[in-house]
Amino acid sequence: MNTKKAPSRAAGEAVLTVEIDGSAAWLTFNRPEKRNAINDVVLDALRVFFSDIPEGVRVVGLKGAGGHFSSGLDLAEQSEREAEEVLRHSRGWHAVMELIQSSGVPVISVLEGAVMGGGLEIAAATHVRVADPSALYRLPEGKRGIFVGGGATVRVGRILGPDRMTEMMLTGRTYDAQEGQALGLSHYLTEAGGALAKARELAAEIASNASLVNYLIIQSIARINDMSRADGLYAESLSAALSQTGADAKEGLKAFLEKRKPRFS
């Protein structure tokens, strides 16, 4: 029998650590003894960071300590709540997920081990998802007698489609890393142990883009997807006009003609 204990967090150590590496910020869920289950302290730490991203950060990486991304909402710390309290708590999750998705800075998630429940909701709010072969995706809420409340019906449902998400919740099925990539839950699937290195490679590539273009990609595409066809095409034209008339556009064209890499602001 395997009696190996899960890694534990040192007393007083932050539940969400932040490391700035050049133009990238790397955030780590640091509750390995709980498979990085998300409690209100972790959620608030995410809110604080994404509400005021440090100056000079052009890309954010999100990962978990101890071999798991996140097993989702920490049910052990959930007290009995009245309906209004549950509503407000769910809306608090929605606000933080919106900050992650719409802060204007690209977010890459490194998916290992458990990517379940609220962990999958967080991953679905990120823009680039890199998976290790150990990644396992699940929405177990239906088997816990509760309904998702962190945005899964919108973000995960948009990735999978409502039909497949309905089946996933009804049965509590788990998708492995290969199935998850085929379904769009991850964009990249690496060899074992290679997800973080791939994420760092992608972070450097994304950070080299013009910051305005990254901002427009994040802000425009998701919103255009919610618009009518005519409104979406108009919003696309506005984004094109903003991006193609600035200094970075001139630098990009000049670099192309001079056969060199652009140096964007």
Topology:
Layout: E1 16-21, E2 24-29, H1 40-51, E3 59-64, H2 83-102, E4 107-111, E5 114-116, H3 118-125, E6 128-131, E7 136-138, H4 155-160, H5 162-171, E8 174-176, H6 177-183, E9 188-189, H7 195-207, H8 211-225, H9 229-244, H10 247-257
Parallel strand pairs: 2-3, 3-4, 4-6, 5-7, 6-9
Antiparallel strand pairs: 1-2, 7-8
Determine Rg (CA atoms, Å): 19 Å
Task: Examine the secondary-structure arrangement and name the CATH architecture of the largest domain.
Answer: Alpha-Beta Complex
What is the terminal separation in angstroms? 56 Å
SS-based class: alpha/beta
SS element count, helices:
10
Poorly predicted ranges (pLDDT <50, ≥5 residues)? 1-6
CATH-wise, what's the superfamily of the largest domain?
Answer: 2-enoyl-CoA Hydratase, Chain A, domain 1
The geometry reads as: globular
Strand content: 5-15%
How many domains in all? 2
Tell me the helix content.
40-55%
Strand order of the largest sheet: 1-2-3-4-6-9
Q: For the record, what CATH class of the largest domain applies?
A: Alpha Beta
Largest sheet: 6 strands, mixed
Average predicted confidence as pLDDT: 92
SSE series: EEHEHEEHEEHHEHEHHHH
CATH fold group of the largest domain: 2-enoyl-CoA Hydratase, Chain A, domain 1
SS elements, strand count: 9
